[in-house]
Each structure stands twice: as C-alpha cells, then as structure tokens.
Amino acid sequence: MDGIRFVQLTPPGSGCSIAIGEGLSDAPPGTAPSMQLVVSDIQAAHRQLKDNGVDVSDVDVQDWGHFVYFADPDGNKWAVQYIPNRPNV
C-alpha cells in the first residue's frame, strides 16, 4: 500500500524478526541508538559484514559475550553478539 515498504528478516529457527523499511515508525532515520542481534558464530558474522563493505569493529570479547559494532546507512547503531555456551536453537 502507499507509504509503506518493508523487509522482514527472520533468522532460521528464530521466533523473532526485524522489520526495516519505510512507514513503519515515526522515528527519524538514524535515531535507533542500540539495536542488537545474537548470532551463533561471531567470526562468520564479522567476516560477512566486512566482506560486504560494512565498516565493522573488530571482535570485542567480554565475559558475557563477544560483540561487533557497526552503523547502518541511516546512522542507527547495531551490536552483533555471540553468547558463549548458549545452546543453539
């Protein structure tokens, strides 16, 4: 319909989705300060982002998880997290 365009991203086996696009929110582009995705392989996620031209941080290893950070073209800030010892679903 007019005024709305979106893509819904649902990782395999996940009960959660991310919807990105136009007409989904009244928030101005670039105002999402901390969105986060959890992955089962942080090295593969880092490599995929980097190989696709994303300006992504090095892997940041913390006791509670391993992270990489980047901003999307609108300026929204993303964290990609791997949680050690978490069962894959």
Q: What spatial order of strands do you see in the largest sheet?
A: 3-6-5-4
Query: What's the number of helices?
Result: 1
Residue windows where pLDDT falls under 50 for at least 5 positions: none
Based on the structure given, which CATH architecture of the domain at 32-89 is correct?
2-Layer Sandwich
Mean pLDDT: 87
CATH topology of the domain at 32-89: Signal recognition particle alu RNA binding heterodimer, srp9/1
Largest sheet: 4 strands, mixed
Rg computed from alpha carbons, rounded to a whole number of angstroms: 14 Å
Q: In angstroms, what separates the terminal alpha carbons?
A: 35 Å
By DSSP, the count of extended strands is 6
Report the portion of residues in β strands: 25-35%
- Indicate the overall shape: globular
| N-to-C order of helices and strands | EEEHEEE
Structural class by SSE content: mainly beta
Helix content: 10-25%
CATH class of the domain at 32-89: Alpha Beta
Protein architecture, described:
By secondary structure, the chain is mainly beta. It is built from one helix and six strands. The strands form two sheets. It has a four-stranded mixed sheet, with helices on one face. Strands 1-2 form a two-stranded antiparallel ribbon. A hairpin with an 8-residue loop joins β1 (5-9) and β2 (18-22). The N and C termini lie far apart (35 Å).
